[in-house]
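Re: that chain you flagged

S.,

Sorry for the slow reply, it's been a week of failed gels. I finally had a moment to sit down with the sequence you sent. For the record, here it is as I used it:
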Amino acid sequence: MFKKILIVLMVCASAQLAAMDTYNTAIGLHFGTSSGNGYSIRKWGDSNAYQVTFAAYATGKRDPIYQNSDFNNHEFRTARKNSVSMGVNYLWGLHDAERYKFYVMTGMSYIMRKVKRYYAPDDNKWVRDDRWTIGAGPGFEFEFSDRFHVCIELPMSYNDRDDITMYIPSGGFYYYFK
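Prediction finished late last night. Pasting the structure tokens below so you have them in one place:
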């Protein structure tokens, strides 16, 4: 039963997208502190848009080999980081030219992160290192073809973990479809 409902919803969504005559829905990659990092969906209305970003990734060595001398001037060493990044943004369209859009982006991102910290060569512990960031600032979306667009943004961002407020650039690559 669930499969049938899912198929009907997919057919309805496809029919709606096929009925549109302009390219206003995009999928791409977006990277920024207040916008989030990862896969992104951007949907433009008449003049404004919303954007959702999501990614899950891991960095660092799983089981590094440390010596006692590696901890001389440090309380701990960070090894593996497992992260989930989510972002939600609203784009306030200010100017829509033939080959670019100028807008103000507002939004926030949240990163859930578990970090494996080594306090000695054989002493490690997984700790939470979550953070959220909010930001607002100007942005441009440049059209390289009907379907391929690149955006550059310069929001003023505030991060709760580091307690900093600064301009941190962000950007993305998008492919538009009906």
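What I noticed first: Residues 2-19 form the longest helix (18 residues).

Talk soon,
D.
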